[in-house]
Amino acid sequence: MHPCSLDPRLSSKTRASGYSCPFHNMASDLKVVSIQEDRFSDVIVHLRKNFFSDEPLNKAVKLCKRGEPHAALERHSLATLQQGFSRMAVTDSGVIAGVALNGTVKKSEREKAESRLLETADEKFKAIFTLLYGVNEKVDLFSTYNTEELFECRILSVDENFRGRGLASTLMTDSMETAKQAGFKVFKADATGVYSQKICENFGFKTVAEIPYSEVDENIRPPPPHEALKLMVKILE
Ligand SMILES: CC(C)(COP(=O)(O)OP(=O)(O)OC[C@H]1O[C@@H](n2cnc3c(N)ncnc32)[C@H](O)[C@@H]1OP(=O)(O)O)[C@@H](O)C(=O)NCCC(=O)NCCS
After folding, report:
1. How many CA atoms lie within 13 Å of 183's alpha carbon, on the beta-carbon side?
2. Across residues 43-53, what is the average pLDDT?
3. How remote is the CA of residue 208 from the centroid of ligand 1, in Å?
4. What CA–CA distance (Å, rounded) separates 79 from 49?
5. What is the torsional sign of CA 209, 215, 221, 227?
6. pLDDT class for 22, splitting at 50, 70, 90?
7. Can you give the pLDDT at residue 134?
8. Whether pLDDT at 38 is above 60
9. I need a labelling partner for 145 at 20 to 30 A (CA). Which of 17, 97, 195, 223 fits?
10. Each residue of 224-234: pLDDT tens digit?
11. 174: left (phi > 0), else alpha (psi -120 to 50), else beta?
12. Which atom belonging to ligand 1 lies closest to the Cα atom of 165?
């Protein structure tokens, strides 16, 4: 089935805003495509200008100023890009409007990543990932859903100039389709802020674990309206 026909709200919203759904053959200056290696460095530049400074936990710890590089976060992003499941929305002239950095994870890989984190010198990065691993430790998704491997959206980022037009929702629809095509049954996201949580809820994700921000150190606590870090899961059908 066409992804947009699953969610009429999305297609009417994108039409109304002048942005056309990439799944329809409507006149459009934006399309969603797979991210090939020759665009990896452009994606990193996009993330430096948008995600590194704006994502709620990054913002709370003041990880980066807008446009600044961040070695550990770039390594994490590149490792995800290399897995080959990431998608980007681009204009006709190739400008990156938004990205969904998607990856897959096996139980043994999560454990290795957690021990690598202990070697990271960057204390702010370590604090963020300790929290992310903490919410993931609350529930064993592999045994709960009887699966060896999960699909996860690790980074959802829309350029400041393209926000509020349904683009993140379009990238999420596209990512769910990408996961399904690749044969995955369980799609997860560590949703750090109310907007990504809203997007996940709109697509039927359920919260399976959470850490209220009132319980975390104030140096890493995103301000309201963000209330909790949520581990959200959608079973793909
Ligand atoms: C969060 C982010 C990806 C949203 O992108 P976007 O393209 O503007 O989102 P959409 O237009 O698809 O909106 C999705 C939903 O979130 C809500 N939303 C998004 N940004 C909002 C804002 N600033 N204020 C209020 N609501 C907002 C929308 O109302 C919409 O819900 P609805 O369809 O029920 O009305 C974008 O703001 C961003 O890149 N932020 C920085 C990085 C980040 O925080 N990423 C998410 C964590 S991984």
Report:
1. 3
2. 98
3. 21
4. 19
5. positive
6. very low
7. 95
8. yes
9. 195
10. 999 999 999 99
11. alpha
12. 11
- Note the pLDDT of residue 28: 60
pLDDT at 121 over 50: yes
Atom of ligand 1 nearest to the CA of 158: 39
Write down all domains in the chain, each with its CATH number in brackets: 3-235 (3.40.630.30)
Q: What pLDDT sits at residue 116? A: 82
Rounded to the nearest whole angstrom, what is the distance from the C-alpha of residue 195 to the centroid of ligand 1?
Answer: 5
Residue nearest to atom 5 of ligand 1 (CA): 168
Alpha-carbon gap, residue 133 to 124, rounded angstroms: 14
Tokens of 107: 């139980």
Please list, in sequence order, all residues whose beta carbon lies within 8 angstroms of the beta carbon of residue 152, skipping any fewer than 6 positions away.
Answer: 102, 103, 104, 105, 187, 188, 189, 190
d(CA 20, CA 12): 9
- In this structure, the residue with its CA closest to atom 43 of ligand 1 is 55
Instruction: Identify the residue whose C-alpha is closest to ligand 1 atom 44.
Output: 55
Contact 209, 232 (CB under 8 A): no
Q: What is the pLDDT of residue 115?
A: 80
What is the number of other CB atoms lying within 10 angstroms of the CB of residue 107?
Answer: 14
